[in-house]
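Action item from last week, closing it out:
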Amino acid sequence: PEASDAASANSDSHDIAGNNVEDLGYSQYSPRLLRQAQQVLMVQDRLSILHMRRKALASSACASPDNKRFCPETFLDVVAEKLAYNAVLFINYELLQDFFFQFPRELDSNLYYGKTLQQTRDFASQNPHIGQQLKLIERRQRLELVMTRLNELVRQQAAVEQHGRKRSHWSTTASPSYSNPFPGL
């Protein structure tokens, strides 16, 4: 413990640049306070530089990205936009790809596979627009079924009438000694 106290005391007597504080004539002040004062001065210098750069950016020379030689901040702004664009692409592709890929498959597996047709229809009819469309589809199917049956009846009726005409034609042209070998036709 005594060695670490001696090391910290030794480091307190040196400033950031490695100069001995006692050699500079500041021995009456706390070395810790002197380091903090040096950091404050460094931050103030940095702040004044940033204010100067902000004023330079507001000037007409830095108005467009074409003047990147004169205004590095403008160039850095373009680079920042490009990095933000690439970050959005990364998020969309890498992070959301699994969601975009898996979501439709999860819906299919939960809503379609393993469900009966009636369960699927019940789920779909919960949405009023889809329920109305399903009712219209069922009505259309019934009407098409009725139409096909009516068409079959019309064809059968036409066939019976045509067969009846042929029979009457044969019966009038046939000889009177001819008897019908197939009764009922």
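Closing note: The radius of gyration is 48 Å.
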